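Objective 1b. Sequence-to-structure analysis of Cytokinin riboside 5'-monophosphate phosphoribohydrolase.
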Amino acid sequence: MTKKIAEAWPPRAYKNVDFLNSPEARQIRILCELEETERRFKEENIEDTIVMFGSARTMPLKEAKSRLAGLEKRFAGKKRLSQKDKEELRLAKANLRNAPYYNYAMDLSHKLTKWSMSLTSKQRRFLICSGGGPGIMEAANRGARKAGGASIGLGISLPFEQGLNPYVTRDLQFEFHYFFVRKWWFIYLAKALVVFPGGFGTMDELFETLTLIQTRKVEKKVPIVLFGSEFWNGILSFDTFVEWGVISPKDLNLFKIVDTTEEAFDYIVKFLTKEHLLK
C-alpha cells in the first residue's frame, strides 16, 4: 500500500462517494435534498412562492405559427400524405392551439412579479416558482425575468429533459432526484398555485395539491387557479365528481377557472392581500 493510499484510508463515511451513492445511503440523499434546499431558501429570505406549472411541450405562439407554416409549405406539393406526415401536421396544429398559454403564463408571471416587487415587506415575498423546465415553466420564469425580478426553478433529473431553462435566477436553481422531495418544496412555500393546460405531470401536481387541501394536510389557504376553461372543461367534468358523490359540492370552491391574465391576477392578489398581507 502506497503512502498516499495509506493516508487516505480509511475514508470518512461522509466523504465516501461509493457509499453516498449506494442504496443504503438513500435516506441521507433524501435529507440532503431537504436540508440543502431549506438552507438556500433561508439565505435568500424566501418564505412565500406563487407556483406556476403546465405542459413542458407548450411553445411560444410565434414559434408554433412558424412551425405549422413550415410544414404546410413542405406538404403543399404532396398529393398524398404519409401517416407520419399526418401525425406531424396534427401535432403542429395541436401545438398552435396550446401556444397562447405560453404567452398567458409569461404575462401573468410578469404582472405578479411587478406586484410582488412593489410590496414594502423586507422579505422577498411571493416569488414565481416553476419546475424549471421548458414550456409553461419557461414562460413563468421568463415573465419574472422580464419584470426584473427573481424566480425559482425546482428542476428534476429526467432522461428526456436536461437542465433548467435560462430564465431561472442563478442562485435559485435547484435540481432534484426525488420527485416527492421536489413536490414537498412546491407545496411547502406555496401561497398560490396557477395551473395551465398540461399532461400527466400537471394532473399529478394538481390533484395531489387538491387532495392535501381537501384533507386538511395543508392547513393554509391556497388559491388554485386553473387557466383555460376550454381545456379544463373539455378534459374534466368537475360536476360529475359531485354527481357521483365522490367529492362534496363545497370541494368545487377549492379552485377557480379563468380565461384571462387580468382575472387570474386580480383573484390571486386579492386573496394574498386578504390572507397574508393584511394579517
